[in-house]
Amino acid sequence: MAKMSVENVIKRASLAASKKDEWRTIYQECYEYALPQRNLYDGNYEGGVPGQKKMQKVFDSTAIHSTQRFANRIQSSLFPPYRAWCRLQAGNAIPEGRRPEIQRVLDFYNERMFNVLRQTNFDLSMSEFLLDLAVGTAVMLIQPGDEKAPIRFTAVPQYLVSLEEGPHGTVDNVYRKMRMKGDAISLQWTDANIPVALQQQIDRKPTDDVDLLEATVFNKDNGYYCYYVIHEKTKSMLVYREMKMSPWIVTRYMKVSGEVYGRGPLITAMPDVKTINKTLELILKNGSLAVSGVYTAADDGVINPQNVKIQPGAIIPVARNGGPQGPSLTPLPKSADFNVGQIIINDLRMNIKKMLLDDTLPPDNMSARSATEVVQRRNELAQNLGAAFGRLITEAMIPIVSRILFILDQRGDIDLPLKINGEEVRIVPISPLAQAQNMEELNDVMQFVQIVAGMGPEAMMTIKKDEIIDYVAERLGVPGRIMTTKDEREEIAQQYGQMQAMAAQQQQPAGPPQAGNQEAVMRALQ
Asked: In the prediction, which pLDDT does 93 show?
């Protein structure tokens, strides 16, 4: 596939956008009730006003709070801020004799990578990225930066992005709608080829917004990604580049076969979210009627019925209020108190929190919880994530690390000749959630060692102690520079053996006197 024309790029982007419209109703409800501040479906890109109110449909904040907790828990469990949450390890393709040497180099690269991340906006972008993941699909753009921020991370709202899958279920093509100031185009892309008509428009009104289409399309012929920036109004190609790696990270929480976009826990919880919102809305309306009441007024020609509305505090004209004439003003009988909602609200809130992994610890005024219970809660979180944990590693952690190392390699900060393909170099998570799973494996091994140790010294000879130490260090993510290699261990063992032999010789008692010495001793005694 050669370089595509502007018409073909626009056509493919329109087709991808039309397929995404099938998800509009599902995603829009999630953003309206659980992430209203990130909702763009009725925001600026749909003719709205920046800064407008977006909480009109929200009567209960349980979904909003639990969604924030979901993003915070995933980030603290998989991508904890200012901590190393993964480790580069030598794969099986590396010869066993060279693995310790390669591991020390990889540990240096790993430390360098996290030092760079601490200078960037990664932690901020990751929190926004995980908020979108709660809906189902999260998108992040990773681009080279400058000296102050070597790498730039941008969590792009999924509303602005349309996707196309490749043959193996991976997202190969990404199309994004962009709106930016005209004079910022040349600053964003220094190699932009701006047509005359557009340049004249920018010169006249440099602060006016310009709508652009950004497209990243995989070229299967040469294995490169073709990057386009197109001004749709004039059908002009402003930027064209060829890249070895896509700058886009697209993660789906859960994916159904045949679908491109993901389904998150918010979609599962949405029936309960809508029910609790409607229940509270009715309770509030009933409460306002109970406080203000609705009244009837005699239609005596003084009151105009057209000006009367049925609402709290309203007066409804009637012919009479009982009896021959009745009183001039009488309260309207209201229905029974709407207390049935209180029965189901707590159950709905518990269901929403459970689906969004918002199982908090008991309040502070309860009895103290042990460390074992806290660890068990974390293990339960790992079990609840289930397949989503593996998808987060495959579609988020590994692509993010690969992209970061690629940018650092291009900048000359590191020189990584090995491929991150699981065979030469593999990415191993060492975040708290991954460590909780590793501890289960370690507990099994240590329990086995204790059982064998109870069988006596002969049984302990069946265990390779060095291999156990290496296994424990690998599961705990211990840096390779503080571990000795097998050659160093053999050398240390030889030196220790020599020291023991010398000590044994020094402790041996002196032998019997020789013949010449016996005569000298006898003369001395005489």
From this structure: 85
**CA 320 from chain center: how many Å?**
66
- 23, 22, 27: which is closest to 39 by C-alpha? 27
Inside any domain, residue 37: yes
Query: How many other C-beta atoms lie within 10 A of the C-beta of residue 262?
Result: 24
Asked if 223 contacts 174 with a C-beta cutoff of 8 angstroms, the reply is no
Tokens read off for 346: 């707590």
Could you tell me the residue range of the domain that residue 52 belongs to?
Answer: 6-82+118-266
Number of domains in the chain: 1
Alpha-carbon distance of 27 to 125, in angstroms, equals 20
Q: Name every residue whose Cβ is closer than 8 Å to that of residue 239 and which is 6 or more positions away in sequence.
A: 189, 191, 192, 193, 227, 228, 229
Which amino acid appears at position 311 of this protein?
Q
For 151, residues 6+ apart whose C-beta sits below 8 A from its C-beta are 116, 117, 120, 122, 142, 143, 144, 145, 404, 407, 408
Q: Is 490 exposed, middle or buried (0-12, 13-18, 19+ CB in 10 A)?
A: exposed
pLDDT tens digits for 436-481?
667 777 778 888 888 888 887 777 777 877 778 877 777 776 776 7
Sheet holding 171-181, edge to edge: 161-165, 171-181, 209-219, 224-231, 236-243
Round to whole Å and give the CA distance between 22 and 215: 21
- E strands along 19-103, which residues? 86-90
- Specify the pLDDT at position 380: 67
Angle at the Cα of 486 (from 480 to 488), degrees rounded to 5?
Answer: 85
Q: Which two tokens stand for residue 241?
A: 């580049």
Sign of the torsion formed by the C-alpha atoms of 96, 98, 104 and 110: negative
260 near 175, Cβ under 8 Å? no
Question: What's the pTM value of the predicted model, to 2 decimals?
Answer: 0.78
Residue 329 contacts residue 297 (beta carbons within 8 Å)? yes
Question: Helix, strand, coil: what percent of the chain each, to 5?
Answer: 50, 15, 35
Q: Report d(CA 10, CA 122) in Å as an integer.
A: 31
Q: Look at the block and give the residue holding tokens 């907790």.
A: 69
pLDDT beyond 60 at 365: no
- Whether 29 is in a domain gets the answer yes
DSSP 330-373: EEPP------THHHHHHHHHHHHHHHTT--PPPPTTSPPPPHHH
514 Cβ partners below 8 Å, 6+ apart?
Answer: none
| Domain contains 143 | yes
For 403-429, the pLDDT digits (tens) are 999 999 988 888 877 788 778 898 988
Strands 224-231 and 236-243: antiparallel
Tell whether 51 is covered by a domain.
Answer: yes
- β 161-165/171-181 pair status: antiparallel
Sheet with 248-252: strands ordered across: 151-156, 137-144, 248-252
Say which range, 64-78, 160-174, 194-208, 276-290, has the weakest mean pLDDT. 276-290
